[in-house]
Amino acid sequence: MSSQPNIQRKRSRQPSFVEKAGRLFLDSGTQAIFLHRAAHFLYRLNVPLIPTIIRRGNFFLTGADIYPSCKLGKDVRFIHSAGIIIADKSMIGDNCEIFGQVVLGGRGGNHEEDGAPIIGANTVLCIGAKVLGPVTIGQNVTVAACAVVLSSIPDNCLAAGVPATIKTVYKQEKHS
Predict the structure, then answer these.
(1) Around Cβ 168, how many Cβ atoms within 10 Å?
(2) Whole-model pTM?
(3) CB atoms within 10 A of CB 164
(4) Residue 26: pLDDT band by 50, 70, 90 thresholds?
(5) Tens digit of pLDDT for each residue in 101-142?
(6) Cβ–Cβ under 8 Å, residues 37 and 54
C-alpha cells in the first residue's frame, strides 16, 4: 500500500444503478468512455469503418478523440472530456483519472519516438498533461497540470514540469 496524496482521492463506494444511468446521460466523460468501449469492441471484432465513425461521433459529442485501438482499464474516469486525445494503441490501467486537455500520443518524429504511452493503474493525469512517445507511467503516479512527460516515470511518485521530472516519491507502508 502506498500513501496517496490529496489529488488521488480514494473512491468511497460504488455508485448505484441510478447514479450510473444518470452519468451516462448527463456526464460527457462517462459518455466518452462508453462510446470508446463500443468502438473498441467493434475494432477487436475487425469490423471495418464503424469504429472510426463512432470515434468521430465521440469527438463531436464529447470533445474526446480516442482511437478505437487504445485500451482503457476498469474504472477509468474522464473528469472533463473536452480536449482529451488518446492516440493509436495507447494503454491505460485500471482506476485512472484523466482530466481535460490531456494528450497521450506520439512525438511526430521517427518510428522509435512514435510509440504509444502506457499508463499504470491508479494514476492521475491532471489537466493539460502531455505524455508523448513510447513511455511508461508507473502505478500510483500523479502527473501534474501541464507537465510534458518524455521519459518513463516509476511507480509511486509525482511528476511535474516541462519536461517532467520526479518531484516527490510517495512512501510505501511496510507490512510486518
Answers:
(1) 13
(2) 0.83
(3) 23
(4) confident
(5) 999 998 876 655 678 999 999 999 999 999 999 999 999 999
(6) no
Nearest to 153 by CA among 133, 173, 172, 128: 133
All structural domains of the chain with their residue ranges? 17-169
Q: How big is the CA angle at 1 (ends 134 and 76), to the nearest 5 degrees?
A: 50
Domain 17-169 has CATH 3.40.50.2300: no
pLDDT over 70 at 93, yes or no:
yes
Task: Convert 149-161 to b/e letters by CB count within 10 Å (16 or more is b).
Answer: beeebebbbbbbe
Check if the beta carbon of residue 162 is closer than 8 Å to that of residue 150.
no
**Sheet strand arrangement including 71-72:** 71-72, 91-92, 118-119, 136-137
131 close to 143: Cβ distance less than 8 angstroms: yes
What is the rounded distance in angstroms from the CA atom of residue 47 to the CA atom of residue 40?
10
Number of Cβ within a 10 Å radius of residue 74? 9
User: Distance between CA 66 and CA 56 in Å, rounded?
Assistant: 9
Q: Provide the pLDDT for residue 2.
A: 45
